[in-house]
Structures
1.
Amino acid sequence: MSGIKFGADSFSTYEEGIKKEWIVGNGLGGYASSTVIGANTRTYHGLLVASPEKSPGRFVLLSSLDEEISINEEVYRLATHKYPDTVFPSGFNYISKFILVPFPLWVYQFGDFTIKKKIFMIHNSNTTCILYNIRSRREGALLRIFPLVNSRNFHYTVRSGELSFTQKTNPAGVKLESSNGCTFSLSSNLSYHSDPKWYYNFEYDIEKKRGLNFQEDNFNPGYFESKLKLGTSHFFIAASTEDVSSLTLEQVEEFYTRETYRQNLLAFNSRLTEPFALKLLRATDPFIVKNPSSGESTVIAGYHWFSDWGRDTMISMPGLLLIPRRFEEAKYILKNFSRHCKRGLIPNAFLALGGEPIYNTVDASLWFIHTVGRYFAYTKDFLFLSDVWDTLEEIIENYRKGTDFGIGMDSDYLIQQGPQLTWMDAKIGEQALTPRAGKACEINALWYNALKTASSLGTHLGKNTSTYETLAAGVASNYENVFWNPETNCLFDLVYKGEEGYEVKDPAIRPNQIFAVALPYAILSPEKEKAIVDRVEKDLLTPFGLRTLSSDNPLYKGHYCGDSVTRDAAYHNGTAWPWLLGAYVKAYRKVHNYSKESLEDMRALLQNFDIHLETAGIGTISELFDGDYPYTPGGCIAQAWSVAEILRAYVEDVLGIKP
């Protein structure tokens, strides 16, 4: 796969260097992540962030490695840290290159030394490995590497008085046990020397901007050391929740080769060859993980802080797993959610990777049926379809009769639901920022799509699906009358009963209506589909996503920034979301009769992300962007449905590669 490269001009200042972040996953939901200059700017940054056994959530265990080379009176410090009113050391000044291919590689150059440093994780292991290739043109130089460790939930900060460590040294390094029960090891082919001390008052710039705790202390148990020979020396450090004391340099290098091969195999198996598609394909891998407690495959919704969410998983699966042809994993994920279906609802979220599921979502079950349909289109897996058929029936029957959270079919065949159950679910305290209790335009487009999909799938199994066709016809007969707004020539976003019992129709122009055009089964006339796409293009389209609210609306917020209250107010009231472009591209091509011009327009739109892949989360796509120019990225640096829907749209709707 092609790589992403930056030269020294990209790190000319600390402020520029911290704008770019990298992340490497381990297939278990753990990761290694920081900025390209090695300065941690989030509580979520660290070289080993993992879920220790019997610990809820993910913990920062190895925060960073501070390398220094000394010779005579000269000391070259490669680390970069932010402290109150100062940056020290400023090792980013020595970086000449950063390359992501497929894992992060730094080249440091200073004096008579050149250092190449690689970071990767062993797949399905809470193990991070760092490889050093050091070329010295002087004799007598000394290398020291100081690990800064912690043992805290990645959402929070900690101070030295709140945590302590015991350490047991061994010939290869040290085993650390924290006072809160986490155990992990550091090993190396460098010699280890115990010299415990605390480093105080690290500052995390992004957390400071977000109005969160941004200062903490990290523990340094000692240091790894070796004299450098004239010529080239090779070293490694491994950090793990497992016993890595017997690791050798040769084994670590072999692990690197295997991980590189695994990445290349993903590209080969996908059968994709187009360069931009391959870049997006590489970005899919960290999201597909095994739940560490159950061993079941699932999807991480976003890095750094999300776990596995039902809605996000179903929307993401075509791009994350079907386009890359990872059909076995797709099957097991669908089966897992099917097993957890309760009263027709699949889980909204599995909190903390293994906690009890919560079910407060109206659309996840409908997206589940859609995704089963897409899986069958790609695989023709009749046995799987037979296995999950009961779940499809359960979902439709419960939605028809009524289930939890006020979800159920009204007399007009349309689905209504209680508050905060659609994807626009942000709230401050108990105040909903996008109140959508009632009948939502995309939920009923999904309901119609689910009925038609189930009818089609059931036919393949020889089932009597006439009831589904009858229900679908009822939805189609009422949808336009309920949702069409002739004044704006598009759909009302929501229809609900007001305080006095009168019907209220919300004319806010939001992107949810695009699904009435993009889903496989059309519920509106071609003329009205075209009008919707034209309205969305005029009011909501940006180069990196669809705005969640028209900029003409008085509630519109064009920037996603500030503290949590300010950010949440903008989250679904103007902020642009990349994942929505997947539906937009499909709808745009459809209403323009798949013309050559529409193809080139959508190719250009999606290829805007080729630039973005080098500007925020390197090699991946952010959760959201400002609705206003210059469309600054925000939220998670890597979001599953952002990557998935851009890849799916590019492959299916631009390259024309379909099942």
2.
Amino acid sequence: MFGSLGRYVVRHPWQVILAWIVLAVAVVALAPPLQSTSDEADFLPRDYESIKALEAQADAFPELADTEPAAIVVIDREDGEPLTDEDSAAVEALAEDLSAADIEHLADITANPPSENGVVQTITAGLTEGTDPFDTTLTDSAKELREQAKDAVEGTDLRVGVTGSIAQNLDAEEAASGAEAAVGVATIGLIVVLLLIIFRSPIVALLPIVVITIISQVATGLISIANEAFGLQADSSITVILIVVLFGIGTDYILFLMFRYRERLREGEEPKAAMVHAIERAGEAIASAGGAVIVAFLALVLSSLSIFRSIGPALAIAVAVTVVAALTLIPAVVSLLGTKVFWPSKAWKKEPKGARFAAVGDSLGRHPGRFALASGLLLAVLAIFAFGFKPSFDFSQMSLPDDAESMVASERMLEGYPAGATAPQTVLLRSTDGEPIAQDELAPFGSALGEAEGVAQVADPIPSADGTAALFIVTLDDDPMSDAAMENVEGPIRTTAHDGAPDGAEALVGGTTSIFVDLQDAMVRDYSVVFPVAALLIMVILAVLLRSLVAPLYLMASVGLGFGATLGATVLVFQVFKGEDGLIFMLPIYIYLFVVALGTDYNILMIARLREESRQGKSPHDAAAWAVRHAGPTIAAAGLILAGSFAALMLGGNPLLVSMGFAISFGILVAAFVMSMFFTPSLTALLGHTAWWPGHGDQARPDETDDPVDLAPEELTQKE
């Protein structure tokens, strides 16, 4: 199949290139903008209590767009001293001016009393009736509010900062934009530099950048079309991750192809025939590796969280487009250039000595047991620390750099107000029989709620217009984002609310902390479903590729160890050494998918080469040695480029991208230099023929030959 594909591509390169150009233009013209969200409530299904509370509140109190202020203007003095009476009067005047400014979407702009210690005072702003809290134009309202507030206090002793949901969304949008630029520049720069070092040719170095830029437009457009068609919405980091996935994985697959192409050229084959052979041999590895990645990402559709159900197909589409381009567009371009693709270097003509990889391969072939034990032990020791993983569910704060205005303003606010005041929780009491709730039952319910562990205060109930519901605003003792707050909401607060509901009514606990509690439950459920399904599907791909039931078992065991080692190393660096309270809750799934899927990529490349060496009559130990010698440079180069690409995420500046960049880049290095370079070939050497049971994948096939590809003479027009 891949041989036929290769023949078509080298015979009709302009057709292939033109088809890609037409596809890119059509997709870009028809695709809607790629939408994203950073609101945690968007991620949960409707059957969780926090979402039921949110929807019930919207039904019973349509005039309340949100019980949390849309924006909070935090005012304090530059010198840190308590606010004076004149300062408070200035804050009152500022609130009046902001209200008179008639900022779009904002209403009920009110000055609140100073904090008890007099250090901080706030102005809160709500949304106009009927405004969608997730309207993307609200960031413009936040920007105007900031500008007006700062202009008003200019030249005074006061300083202002704006926080709240719309301000956080504005900061997240700006941070994502900056991160996208920084990550894009770093990723492309790294790829160009490493390819220049490897091939010593500016053409090879720039080829992936040009080609992947084109296919990225196709992939992003197809993702937008799919999201709109199926009502999916990814998180705000998707655009940054797509850059890394497309350029990192795309360059990997191009390397797989180009190393094979160069290898055949060195054996004296004509350029077009060499490209056909490269597609025939590397094509199976690229398609299988891409298939493993796609299957792993598509397993996310089984998630209960919409963030994973949308980002999984998005990344799967990106990888699928990349695989197709690596097998069609890249070969078409290279077949036109021939050996000029390596200009001005002549190094492609000479087989490198490969002393390092040859030495490693020889040593591994002689002592596979030592390599298997050492690499396995290293992974196991790091994996122990994975049990210390503490999830954080505050997606908004994890997506923001520490110096973002909303983050700084929130910190200043805590200097005067209790921690729970930053995000009050809600408890909705609603009738279950359609009858109004007796008003004399509201006060006892509120009193019982106020005595629950973790509750600082409960405001007077707000009855609905028809009396069938009442809303209680609850302030927690602890930071709403903390583990203590989550434990109290999940335990005593929900229990008290449920048990204290009067006859004929039910209580629903909502608010940010309640959403975090439900996210945690959903995450645990997803781990038990997504992980096994993804692993099983990848094993099926490996079994089909290798015609073996044994090899897939230890290959998946190796990537499982790689996952544990990666999560453990991340916990060690961020929670133990840096002292962070936790890591974003979605990190284990991202690590699992990228390390398992991409680790399988390198395992596939290594074991496919090992099988090829075995089919040439080498013993298991010798086949492992030669596989490391030949596939080692490709895996090392691909691993460095892909790890470096994901490491560029650390330039994003926010905790989410920093931790994700470190974790995935470390996992890829483990996958390339420990799993596939040492663990997989050493185990295969130890198992010998048993590794290929019940098939005979290591035995030579009469229909498989290394002879040059037979093309018509007129097709071999590209000479050196």
3.
Amino acid sequence: MSLSTAGSVRVHTLTAAATCLVVDVSSGVPRVLHWGARLDDDPAHERFLATLSEAQFGADGLPGQHRHPAVLPEQSAGWTGTPGLEGHRNGTAFSTRFLATEHELSGRPDQGQVLVSRAVDEAVQLALTTTIELSAEGVARLRAALTNTAESGTFTVDAMRLALPVPAEAQEILDFTGRHLRERSPQRHPFHAGTHLREGRRGRTGSDASFLLVAGTTDFGFRRGEVWAVHTAWSGNHVTFAELGLNGLRLLGGGEVLLPGEMTLEPGDTYTTPWLYAVHGNGLDAVSAAFHRHLRARPAHPASPRPVVLNTWEAVYFDHDVDTLIELATLGSKVGAERFVLDDGWFLGRRDDRKGLGDWQVDPAIWPKGLHPLVEAVRGLGMQFGLWFEPEMVNDDSELARAHPEWILAPGDGRLPLTGRHQHVLNLAIPEAFDHVLESISALIAEYRIDYIKWDHNRDLVEAGDRRTGEAKVHAQTSAAYALMDELRRRHPELEIESCSSGGGRVDLEVLQRTDRVWASDCIDPLERQRIQRWTGLVLPAEMVGSHVGAPTAHTTDRTHSLAFRAATALFGHFGIEWDLRTASPEELAELGEWVALYKQERELLHSGTAVHCDYPDDAYWAHGVVSQDRTRALFTFVALDTSAAAQPGRIRLPALDPDLSYRVEPVSLSTGALVRTRSGKPSWWLDGPVISGRALQAVGLQGPMLYPEQALVFRLVADQPPQKRS
């Protein structure tokens, strides 16, 4: 640990895995001089980088400025791009000039380090604390806390953003957009001059959220190129941006989007930004590996094998009948399901999506004995029991809305916002509303010993204010939702929570501090899910991404797929079933049981190994897999998304294997149903199960079969004896 006054130490180096952050703390707000590849321990490097912190330049009348802007950029330092802090005292004190007071570095290289820097601006009477962390897994994150140190008077925070520099080699940008049923759709373009601004103003992360903003060298891919990536960890309004200024500086940054008047600091009050996560690596797989290791290292990360889920939504929707649900549970148990989740429709008056939200009582009209008959049957079959809630919402047609219309988030002028799914948002910042929801849900968890909550959030926060005062409340609502999850987890330590929000509309690293998995999308068409899961996996490991086998014809796209393609897609996630199994044939149930058995056999590998993707040159085909940490086992899939312009695919090069081991290729062949159909028959390696060196599999690869579209070929690699060397 080092503790010193500013000026006695100019530069600190934070190092872990393959990553390095070099931070200048000598004046004002910390400035990152290098974020990228790890340096060795030569002290000359620090002396060299310290000289970079002294460089200033200007152009065409611009003031001279530091080559490396602070992580909270200030105009007083010559920065004329997007400011780190926007705020004022009744129209004054609009510009800050923070002076460093002290800094503290704790931890050790490769074990996690934390650099805390403090600065003040006595003229505008503000104090700033900046925290920069680098985890042992090579994931950096930073945030800042602003305190009003005046004896009287408020300071209004309009915006507060953090940013990190990237070098000129970062020539391209990849980020994500999307919609309900097609979350996390990639978009890619050159790193143009100006600001590439991605704001989310939905009051939740959003189906169209940037999710991850990546800058990289030209033509970077999963296994090639140098990349820098940031993620804004906040479930409310947020911003992520890339900026290339007139001065040639490139930044990646993010923060919270604050609505007017939403953050006013009285004397002594503090506003803390969301965490901005940052990862550097060679190729996108290196970025995802760092995120996955970081999440898996958390004390609260799910440790037990991820149970096979049977969810009732697409099986019965709102049509709840005890005998039908017990029959579904029985069929699910026979194919190997381990967790039964009763979805929307169980509570007071809930026959469709027009009424009942907020009335968290079991409907006696459907459940005269409560949920006990179903819960007892489910537990008797050896399964856990889960239940759907939408705690932050309320229908107009509900007992709660009639009793407390003032608890609805609204702009405060006597009108209500536009409805979404026939519902409004409950103002959890009102203590009485918070307590009502908390006690209602907590009582049900206790009564039925609920193992798992599917926590839904099915509408945007539009005109989200306190109906009584007219004040904007998105920040307060987001914080209250976190507090509600935290308190339920405190009361019920064994409870698991899934983050669902019209599917994948609330997927970020802050809500994941409180939840155990996400529902990636309401679309379980396997063709769409291949894409959605591919990009969700950039940040989240497979065990945190719910992935279900649906009906033969997808409810959201009306496309029909084989059970093999549906199950092979769900295999590379947290496997589940969302299909009315009463309609399945005996042969389909038998094949589904085989896939469940395969998932159980391979889930330790799938949920602890390293996810890898092949940079396959033909967009019609994807190849990806999971390699064990010791590289002795792997599970891969070769997926045909479309027809190819080529008459025959090329070879599939399999990455991340041990070049000095030999691997036995084991095709996954199930007892019922054809896994794959091809025009030209199965390749010889599929039939013969050869033993091939890791070096050859990476450099040469396996010849890909010409699959018909929308199929997935799954195969294992198991380490055999090392390859024999020629004498």
